[in-house]
Write a structure and sequence with these properties.
With 346 residues, this protein is α/β, with parallel strands linked by helices. The protein has helices at residues 5-11, 17-21, 96-99, 102-106, 125-136, 155-161, 191-206, 230-234, 247-260, 336-342; strands at residues 53-54, 74-79, 113-115, 143-145, 168-172, 175-179, 212-217, 265-269, 280-284, 290-295, 304-310, 316-322. The chain has ten helices and twelve strands. Keywords: Signal. This is Calcineurin-like phosphoesterase domain-containing protein.
Length: 346
């Protein structure tokens, strides 16, 4: 894997043109009524997630994590909804913007790529072939994935193609990465997965070598947890599969916030980015060290990934990597006010 810092510097170069070309209030479409969340009684029965495990040996492409060098600093790439535009139904491959950027991604020096779900459009043999040959095996770094609804629409098919745990952890350098399966119970983190998740959060709190925790999920399960995130919850890619109940607030959020009172926590999700939506979101809480991040692509001119730089002490820095090669701006630009100004309000 080539580690070219000069390329990284180019990818992260700041420029005001980025803001002017980002989706404006005139571009978005209204969320269709059919995409609104369904009542709990209309949702499918939950399935048991694959037993959570150490994911280091479970990269989708079988590649191994590189040994950490020097002071242990590293970076990783992250992106969601990699199959691209829902309208491009004729393609069996992931987003053209992603495939056209593979050389740049390889030159980024990232240790691994974390997909945030929906990396395949359909689970047909042709689409699985397109995913495998076009992206999974073509990527010269370990690829992990927090499964999305498209990936496990027929769970047995996905697991035959990629017989790996759908939830688990990576303890790599000073960061503990937790990967969740938000499709097993219609967006809920419940049952065995909740027990495991809570245990891992406590492990992070009591383990000195864990300096920062990054949680990876497809669904923005946190977006329905508070009223001020209404604009984010409304403009995920599709509301189908989200349930508006208080389970997250009661059973998940307290443990996350308790950890964030002691160590930095970042929750990253990938169910955004299609045409008419925004590709990035960032919000940092003020009372605890908890940040919410979303990143997704839709085969549009605004597609972007994130490159997350991990310092030896676990501090994180975020670089926006625009897939059209245009200059970028800080991730922090894409906060709640930006979303409210650039998307219709209910």
């Amino acid at each position: 894997m080539r580690r070219t810092l000069a390329v990284v510097a180019c990818l992260l170069a700041a420029g005001s043109t980025f803001v002017r070309t980002w989706p404006s209030a005139s571009a978005p479409i209204e969320a269709p009524a059919s995409a609104l969340p369904r009542a709990a009684q209309d949702l499918p029965e939950p399935v048991e997630v694959t037993e959570p495990a150490d994911l280091a040996a479970h990269a989708l492409n079988g590649r191994a994590l590189p040994p950490l060098e020097g002071d242990g600093a590293y970076s990783f790439l992250v992106g969601g909804h990699l199959y691209g535009s829902p309208k491009n139904t004729a393609s069996i491959y992931p987003s053209a913007s992603l495939l056209g950027s593979l050389d740049r991604l390889e030159e980024s020096g990232a240790a691994f790529f974390m997909g945030l779900g929906d990396i395949v459009r359909y689970l047909t043999p042709k689409h699985l072939y397109g995913l495998r040959t076009g992206f999974v095996d073509a990527l010269d770094m370990p690829l992990f994935n927090a499964v999305g609804n498209h990936d496990v629409a027929v769970r047995d098919v996905w697991l035959r193609e990629y017989p790996h745990p759908t939830a688990g952890f990576l303890e790599y350098g000073p960061v503990l990465h937790l990967v969740l399966d938000t499709e097993a119970d219609s967006g809920r983190i419940a049952g065995r997965q909740l027990e495991w998740f809570t245990t891992m959060l406590e492990h992070a709190r009591t383990t000195e070598s864990v300096r920062t925790v990054v949680i990876h999920s497809h669904k923005l399960v946190w977006a329905d947890a508070r009223e001020e995130f209404e604009i984010v919850a409304r403009f995920v890619n599709a509301r189908r599969g989200y349930v508006e109940d208080d389970g997250f607030v009661r059973e998940v959020l307290p443990s996350v916030r308790a950890l964030a009172a002691h160590k930095p926590v970042v929750w990253m999700s990938g169910d955004i980015g299609i045409e008419g939506r925004l590709p990035l979101f960032f919000h940092r809480e003020t009372d605890v060290d908890l940040s919410y991040v979303a990143v997704g692509i839709g085969d549009t001119g605004d597609d972007a990934l994130l490159q997350v730089f991990v310092a030896p002490d676990g501090a994180l820095a975020f670089g926006v990597v625009r897939l059209d090669g245009a200059p970028s701006v800080p991730l922090e630009t894409f906060g709640l006010e930006y979303w409210k100004q650039n998307l219709p309000r209910r």
